[in-house]
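Still learning. Show one?

>
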Amino acid sequence: MNQSRADQSSSSIGRRRFRSTNPSQHFTLTIERIRGANESERKINKFKQGTDSNALRYANANDIFGDPEELLKLRRKDLAYNEKIERKLEDEFEPIVLSEKYMTQKDDEIRKLDVPERMQIFEEVTGNAPVDDISIEEESNWIYARLVQEHGPSFLVNKDDIVRFLEMSHVQKLEIPFIAMYRKEQCRSLLDSSDDDGSDFNLLKKLETKWNKVFWMIQDLDRKWLLLRKRKTALFGYFTKRFEEETCRSDLNKSLFESVMKSLKAAETEREVDDVDSKFNLHFPHCEIDEGQYKRPNRKSHYSICSKFGIREFANKFGYSAEQLGFALSLEKVFVDELEDAKKTPEEMALYYKCAMFEDPQVVLKGARHVAAVEISCEPLIKKYVRGIYMENAVVSTSPTPDGDVVIDSFHRFSAVKWLREKPLRKFEGTQWLLIQKAEEEKLLQVTFKLPENQMNRIISECSEHYLSVGVSKYAQLWNEQRKLILEDAVHGFLLPSMEKEARSLLTSRAKTRLLSEYGQVLWKKVSSGPYRRNNNNTSDEEAAPRVLACCWGPGNPETTFVMLDSSGELVDVLYAESIALRFRDVNDQKRKKKDQDRLRKFIRDHQPNLVALAAANLSCVRLKDEIYEVIFQMVEELPSVVEAGIYDLPVVYADESLPRLYENSRISREQLPQQAGIVKRAVALGRYLQNPLAMISTLCGPGKDILSWKLHSLQDFLDPDEKYEMVEQVMVDLTNQVGIDINLAASHEWLFAPLQFVSGLGPRKAASLQRSLVRSGSIFVRKELINHGIGKKLFVNAAGFLRIRRSGLACSSSQFIDLLDDTRIHPESYGLAQELAKDVYTHDTVRDDEDDAIEMAIEYVRDEPASLRKIVLDEYLRSKNQENKKETYSFIMRELSCGFQDWRSLFKEVDPDEEFYMISGETKETIGEGRIVQATVKKVSSGKAKCVLDCGLPGILLKEDYSDDGRDIVDLSNKLCEGYIVTCKVKSILKQRYHVLLVCKESEMRKNRNLRDVDDYYHEEERKNVLIEKEKAPKEKKQFKSRMIVHPRFQNITAEQATEYLSYKNIGESIVRPSSRGLNHLTLMIKIFDNVYANKEIIEGEKENKDIVSLQRIGKTLKIGIETFEDLDEVMDRYVDPLVTHLMTMLNYRKFRTGTKSEIDDLLRVEKGVNPKMVVYSFGVSHEHPGSFILSYIRSANPHHEYIGLYPKGFKFRKRMFGDLDKLAAYFKRHVDDQGHY
């Protein structure tokens, strides 16, 4: 009954898939419908026109090839039909949908062209790769030089191997996986290692997957070279065109142009090309263009202004030109002629160049020096000289800003870079610079670049040696003073800032390269992990994948869910068990739990899984795992028959839930499992990951690129999505082709097709087309049949060896012959060698070689008897065949003949205790560790200890003696702590196997500032002490505050004095929020009430996160002013400040308001009383003694009386009454002026 239920479930899932209204599926079905109709029409036509072989043998040319006119008509009809299909697709779907499904016209062009898809995309960016010998030789020299420069002379790579790699890539259009596996002999030095090379060849030794890093490095350098070549070519054309267009200019210098073109030709890096481009644009700027031509915006620089008014001509009289100085520094040319000094002083010479813009000789000299300095700073040879010194000797220092000093504690991710002192640029090897850059962006660190004084002097000295005159006359000395100023300005004003910018860019590039490598390494480790294998080795190959019972814990909505997957990863059945991991609260809980246990027992018995995969999500999963084992143990005790089924040792293994969660929320999960709940999708992905990690990870590498959201590295957010996916693709391409794809099995199970896009020669477009074709055909029996499925010759060469053809999927039920060699990694081009080798072994062992099917029997023999291959002495056999240069190929063939498509991936390993702890707790090594400050909520207190819970859910224990330094004197800890208290403490130790944390909150321990990170050799925290000493010397401020991490337009990290000064220039009613001197739970709202009168309102913060110092720096979730509570500062401004200021302005504009001090207003009232002795005179004024209040002054008879009026958002508070209107307040005062007790 259960089996039938499973079948019904499976079939219903299939029916739902085709009835789904999912847009993506509707899209797929629409395309298949359109294409299917076209395919059917072609098949019908083919059937109608078909003839048997005898008829064809004697037919005339028209009968054989068809009537040319008829064929042209059919071709035109076919083209028109295809165009109609495209119009239908474009009318029915949005362009973005067509793009995501790779169904645009551009995608069709890529699909049809018989060139590897990735190469086509590559060349769209770089342009067509050169195929001539000279260009390839030139590029190989450049790549080899870059490799040696980056990795040192110990990097053993043969340049000839690089040449051959480029020839195979550019000319033959072969991709890296093919070259690495089938062209080893042609590029041995590019392989990281060669297990099949040398005398230690061992057929019994299992190969391992290898990341072909050197090949990818060369391909990356190939891309950089092609882009550099493309840019240089474009600049050659652009410079020449500009030069020809501007021949009318009188100041044109042809030799200068030729020099620029020569420098461009010699440029070997992007930086050097930038230098040449900068020099060209300086000397040949855009001028006014004739009407009707394209006009670019022209920014007037000081240099261009000087040139316009003839100052550049004067600058040329200072001596050697910038170009000559560059030649001298680079030793390209040595000038033997001494510099000839002018016979006039610089000031006298400057008089000749005075004009309206430059009226004074000193201004002329200053302009000329600027021109000369700019030209020096833009000279490529000079920049190359300075760059060499700067990049080798410049140093970087860091120090915290005031905010950073508070925020960056010993556990902060920026702690290791908080105090760096003069670290050389060349010493930055890891990802450290990215942290520095991020901290600088967040204004937590100050970063300084500095060239040591001796190197600075070296640059100035060597430049002076070639630039200054050796003359001793008065004129020579005066001109040399000007030249020194020019060099100082060029070096300090232009070159060094430019070098710092380049250094920052270089450090970022290096750090990102290292980070990408680390990111790829983590991904490689996960992808190259082998699937879970059964212990039973007697099962057939197709059933090698386990039947998996995958479980995901649920809090109730959704419920804890079990899904059953067959060995092909297809969903068979689902079980929801809400109460299985419940703790007993009452009898009803116990009954529900017992019912779920019985249901799970029956579920396991019916489906007989080989493995239980449990998602490690939280601490509840620990209890859930125990409950699953309890069910299994009960089954063994109650039903001994399950022992024979292997359930007695059914393993329950933890698995990481991060990837399944991505799948749960992805678009591909909605397409593959459209009617299933999210937790079911998650559980399916969990089980499939253990069955086939490569396919499951590949599933998330579709158009949405969900894989990029997988957290693999703590710093991966520093990488752009394109950078990450390029590395993902690199790893997936290498691994997929080493594992291979069983395409017959994949044709029956869609999710197994996911890695197809990474097969050599293919890509997402070609793979999707091939997949559709294979699914339509159902199965394939010979590799050569792939050509009938839209694969051209070049694609076939690239891909054939990695596509496994065996009796799986629908092919299982067929009796059609399948070549055993198609079930190996042996490439069809080497079938002849493999057949000859197998036949030689077979003949030697059986002495039979005359049978018609000897080759098939020989291959089957060596497959069944791999020991026969070990008898061969490979070197001797190769000599007998005159094939000594094919050792790698023959050793590879021998391995595949003995065990075709052996899995080279590492064996499946269960998570170790450390990994298990971090997965269950949801923490990482960076977020929890000994010495880490944490917040713990007290749950239960006894006399000797307190049981707590950390924010992450981990239980913690705080012992009495660890509570305070005088803990030994504490008799009962419950007198100090109560349930619900939040305690700030440190992690004393972690009991990972018990999922417990021991805590300590002694003041002596809390004061310790432990840093468990690796300390940089250039980290000097004594710099902090020097800063503190300087602070102590400086005048102390009246009140200090702790900087806050709050982002709001009205908030500033300033003192009370600074806030007062800030508001002094603002209008009355302006306000500012600042840190409070009362601590991190308070803020101060300061409002300008009147000139020199400022009211301070205390804001109390509530519901703050107290897990670390950074959390304390952030604003609380609630804000309280008096009895009013607000959610954030915006609400404070809207509900408190704005209405309060409205009432303030009402008071200041009231007819009875007087400006002045209390005594001054009293004098005014006495004068008014003298004029009207019978009246009670009164007025309102600002209270200077109590800022934020007003004072009501009045005279009834002779003496002034005073009462205070409070200012509130709701109005004015007078005599404990609130008035929203001043007229009403005045009327109330007049009626009750004689009431006693108010003054």
Remarks:
- Residues 1-66, 288-297, 537-543, 1033-1039 have pLDDT under 50 and may be disordered.
